[in-house]
Amino acid sequence: MPQTDTDTFRFFTFLMFQTQTDRSTGAMPLPANRVMGSAFVAFGVTLLAGFLYVAVGSKALAPSDNWFLLAVQNDRYYCLLVPLTVPVIIVAVYLHWLSMKMFKHA
């Protein structure tokens, strides 16, 4: 008997939202994918905050005695990385759009 789309959807929904109860308290923890998603978001926010400190914040502070912070303050690579990445992203998005149009109308 062939599987229907509904059966496939139920199976993947079961896999994605599968939870296990704690036997001692009966509490249900968060699904594993929600915890992993939260971890990825927290990691991304941490990287963004670190990049913003390196690119913008460290340049506004007084020179430090710490050798590592002084090296971060004197670095000019990350200050120029994001502005130079924007045109590349625009070209990549345009080429992606163009290739999808060609594929759709071919």
From TrEMBL:
InterPro entries: PIG-Y. Keywords: Membrane, Transmembrane, Transmembrane helix. The chain crosses the membrane at residues 35-56, 77-97. The keyword Disulfide bond does not apply. The keyword Transmembrane applies. PANTHER family: OS01G0939000 PROTEIN (PTHR36485), PHOSPHATIDYLINOSITOL N-ACETYLGLUCOSAMINYLTRANSFERASE SUBUNIT Y (PTHR36485:SF2). This is Phosphatidylinositol N-acetylglucosaminyltransferase subunit Y. It comes from Hordeum vulgare subsp. vulgare.
